[in-house]
Amino acid sequence: MNSATVRHMLDAMGAMFPDAHCELHHSNAFELTIAVLLSAQCTDATVNKVTIDLFKKYKTPQDYVAVPLEELEQDIRRIGLFRNKAKHIHNLCLLLLEKYQGQIPSEHDQLVLLPGVGRKTANVVVSNAFGVPAIAVDTHVERVSKRLGLAGWKDSVLEVERKLMKKVPKDEWTLTHHRMIFFGRYHCKAQSPQCQVCPLLDVCREGRKRMKTAQLREHREVK
């Protein structure tokens, strides 16, 4: 794929979603880390409903470790895998207090060592909280990248990230991450992508395939 095609894709998504941003509600790096941790296999909308009360009750790592684990579990029970996530949050806060003076580290290498924090979470935190360019590959970014041919169908999440980092200008990594999420969440959906009105249909292998299949089906029905 040449650079002109990539530029066309980035500009089209940018025109559709110029104000794309992190939709997880937070007011600092600590809250963002907790929110992203909670968002694994869960929608941002559900996380935001839970964190409205959670962030009023717990403002510091000390607040989380001061309550029994069972109480924290109840506070986030509407979140999928809430028991494991409560344990991760508790252990993460303990480590922050023991090693980082209760502050979220700004270095990616340190973030990924925190309980419950993987590469995707670390990328979201460094880019949104600390202004470090990064591309976090969630389910939307992965789906859009593969449908558009920016990555291979069998590529791992890490391979998708590396390919995007090569093809997208570094100063656009974070913005591209947000725009691809919005594009995947609101337009190029998993089950019902809006191919028929997509400005990228001309360069989307998945879209062309879907439209061709739909046309063949209509042709058979007419017969």
TrEMBL record:
Key words, A-Z: 4Fe-4S, DNA damage, DNA repair, DNA-binding, Endonuclease, Glycosidase, Hydrolase, Iron, Iron-sulfur, Lyase, Metal-binding, Nuclease
InterPro entries: DNA_glycosylase, Endonuclease-III-like_CS2, Endonuclease3_FeS-loop_motif, HhH-GPD_domain, HhH_base_excis_C, HhH_motif, Nth
E.C. no: 4.2.99.18
CDD domains (alphabetical): ENDO3c (cd00056)
The keyword Cell wall biogenesis/degradation is assigned to this record: no
Cofactor: [4Fe-4S] cluster
High-level lineage: Bacteria, Bacillati, Bacillota, Bacilli, Bacillales
Reaction catalysis annotation: 2'-deoxyribonucleotide-(2'-deoxyribose 5'-phosphate)-2'-deoxyribonucleotide-DNA = a 3'-end 2'-deoxyribonucleotide-(2,3-dehydro-2,3-deoxyribose 5'-phosphate)-DNA + a 5'-end 5'-phospho-2'-deoxyribonucleoside-DNA + H(+)
Annotated protein name in UniProt: Endonuclease III
Residues holding [4Fe-4S] cluster: 188, 195, 198, 204
Function: DNA repair enzyme that has both DNA N-glycosylase activity and AP-lyase activity. The DNA N-glycosylase activity releases various damaged pyrimidines from DNA by cleaving the N-glycosidic bond, leaving an AP (apurinic/apyrimidinic) site. The AP-lyase activity cleaves the phosphodiester bond 3' to the AP site by a beta-elimination, leaving a 3'-terminal unsaturated sugar and a product with a terminal 5'-phosphate.
UniProt-listed Pfam families: EndIII_4Fe-2S, HHH, HhH-GPD
